[in-house]
């Protein structure tokens, strides 16, 4: 008899027990004697019965499916910024180790997120949520286990994973100052309040202040955190008089910048030193290899899965905010001034 035709009723009939008894044996519940368990197991083997995991999940109202949501970055962002791919890959690997499956959603700000309920998702991981937005409010109304990455949300009850962006911004700038640079431009994404790029910008200013270097607003260039954004910013940075170094708040923008500078005959690091932030795999193979503030992207993804799973299984996790450390990775895109 093929397992497509075998049902729990067949197993119960073969073993001479009730359907409820077979269910208790399959799920390890109820009081069932050792002899009865043996009878049921022999019937299962004889009939080559495979209980449906999907049916079990439905009964338990568990899908073993989670979503990774990037709802606030606009169309195509996953294609433009390799950072998201590395982070999503890390989340998927962590989820797989717990037998969870991942649904990747590049949602727009007007997204209703109705798919979370429709697909019976067990939880969501949200990248880059913005404080006070309707999209954030709709996510919170879903009332499912949720972890926010790189979001800087003020509600202490929310589960969040961040890296020490301010410290990293400070260290990246200090590295350039230590190489003798005093006129350092900042290439940053949008400086919206309580955002990743703002935190790195604050670190940049802190390093300047500690070194006694006056802050010059005209040295702060905002551009999309993408290779195209960095490349386009090269023209503006090339016009900055006296600038000898650039700290970029993302590797992808730094790599685009180096390409744009090269097109204008400006060599890195001979003419302009560049430091990035993230430590993308791509940066190690840039020309020259990119000096950067390294965050553990894989660790961030795994930590998000850990916090989500704790909520799914226990209703809560031991901590609500995890702030991961960063470190300098010195390569060849920045040089000491003569």
Describe this structure in words.
With 338 residues, the chain is an alpha/beta fold. The protein folds into three domains: 8-51, lambda repressor-like DNA-binding domains (434 Repressor (Amino-terminal Domain), Orthogonal Bundle), CATH 1.10.260.40; 65-163 and 297-324, Response regulator (Rossmann fold, 3-Layer(aba) Sandwich); 165-295, Rossmann fold (3-Layer(aba) Sandwich). Helices cover 42% and strands 16% of the residues. It has 13 helices and twelve strands. The chain has helices at residues 8-15, 19-27, 34-47, 53-60, 77-80, 82-96, 115-118, 134-141, 165-178, 196-210, 227-238, 251-263, 297-314; strands spanning 65-69, 101-105, 123-127, 146-149, 160-163, 184-188, 220-222, 245-248, 273-278, 291-295, 321-324, 326-329. The strands form two sheets. Strands 2-1-3-4-5-11 form a six-stranded parallel beta sheet, with helices on one face. Helix 11 crosses helix 12 (251-263). The longest helix has 18 residues, at 297-314. The protein is elongated, with a radius of gyration of 26 Å. The chain starts with 7 loop residues before the first helix and ends in a 9-residue tail after the last strand. The mean pLDDT is 89.
